[in-house]
Each structure stands twice: as structure tokens, then as C-alpha cells.
Amino acid sequence: MPIWKKPFDLSLLNAANHGTAARHLGIEIIEMGDDFVRGRVPVDHRTKQPFGLLHGGVSVVLAESLGSVGAYYASPEGHSAVGLDINANHLRSARSGWVTGQARPVHLGRSTQVWHIDLVNEADELICVSRLTMAILAPR
To answer: pTM of whole model > 0.85?
Structure first.
């Protein structure tokens, strides 16, 4: 059973990123299943650190982007979602290709949500695990 409380359209969702950090880094939302959000980021000149590896901060931006999208669409109509806390454990590096992330809820409460996000490289090797806590804000 889907967890989403708001209708979504991937093309409109990606178009809404115009002029944002996600767009600048090349982040794309590529799939929303019944209880997950999947997206990806390229490992290229925009996202690498000086040693040629995906910058850890970019992994965190991807994780927070995915969890934020999930939290927003899993909250009631009229409500918004803002980040409270995020952590990330970097387990392995990525030097090229795409890094794909998948966010799933751990807790969907009335005022907070917790999301778990796994990031993998093109060989499907886990490169980062993240946990994101979101505040759910009622309409004003």
C-alpha cells in the first residue's frame, strides 16, 4: 500500500529543481515506488573532490534530497517538511559513473519522520548510509 498522501509526477518534481543545488549537481529523482524514493547523481567535475572521488557532501545532498522528497509526499496535503538532522557514514568511494540512492521511511509520525537512505555505485556496492530526521510542519 502506498505511503504517499500527495499526488506526484516525476517530470514536474524534477522540473521544480530548476535553480537549486540539486539541479546544479545533476541530481535526478528517477523513481517513486509504494514506499521508496530513488534518485541519482553523476560522479563528474561538479561532484568530485580534488582527489577525484565523489565529494562526501554531495552524497549528503543526494541523501537529504531523497528523504526530503519522501517526507513531503508522505505528509498530509498542505503540510511541508524541513530537515532537522542528517548523518552519513561513507563506506567506499566512487570515481565515475552514477551513484544511486534509495530512501525509505523508518518512522512516519505526525510531527516528525525518519528516513534511511542507502547510496550505491554502478556495481551496486554500498558507498554511503544515511539517516535523515524531518520536521513535518502544519499549514499556517
So the answer is: yes
